[in-house]
From TrEMBL:
It comes from the Eukaryota. This is Tropomyosin. The lineage of its organism: Eukaryota, Viridiplantae, Streptophyta, Embryophyta, Tracheophyta. Residues 55-117 form a coiled coil. It comes from Dovyalis caffra. Keywords: Coiled coil.
Length: 159
């Protein structure tokens, strides 16, 4: 796309340069004619004077148009530069967004892994709690047996 822009700009630029060169040459010719007329101060007929006046007016118009072309060329160059900057900023923003998305995915994976580890620890804690509860029940049963056996011994020794 940029090559296409450069190609069309190059062709357009060459046409403008050619037009400006032609206008510059015409201006020079008009200046020479004006100097010649001033030096010679010759009377000319109305038709020649009209043509010279028209040519002079055209020279002034050409000068204004040349300035306008130069202004437009500068504006075009500025617009092209701004577009290039905007494209570069867009690429940077897209790269930053992609990096942020990758970071978010990485954090999500870390959270999922942490959750899995937490679940495993919870399962282990539940198993330990069940084991402790079972042993606690066994201890209470053994205490009850000991008390029962201990109570029979004291009755049999006292009776």
């Amino acid at each position: 796309m940029e090559e296409k822009e450069k190609g069309s700009k190059g062709g357009s630029e060459e046409r403008w340069k050619g037009a400006i060169a032609n206008l510059t040459e015409m201006t020079s010719n008009l200046d020479s004619l004006q100097k010649l007329l001033l030096k010679k101060a010759v009377f000319v007929d109305d038709e020649t004077f009209s043509k010279a006046s028209l040519t002079s007016e055209q020279a002034r118009t050409i000068k204004v148009l040349e300035q306008r072309v130069e202004t437009l060329e500068r504006e075009l160059d500025a617009a092209i530069s701004a577009a290039a900057r905007a494209r570069a900023e867009k690429r940077q923003a897209e790269a930053a967004q992609k990096a942020a998305e990758l970071r978010a995915q990485e954090i999500t994976r870390e959270l999922e892994n942490t959750t899995k580890v937490f679940e495993l620890h919870m399962e282990e804690l539940r198993a330990k709690q069940e084991e402790i509860s079972k042993r606690d029940s066994d201890i209470k049963l053994l205490e009850a047996i000991i008390q029962t056996l201990g109570g029979k011994e004291s009755r049999s020794t006292s009776g």
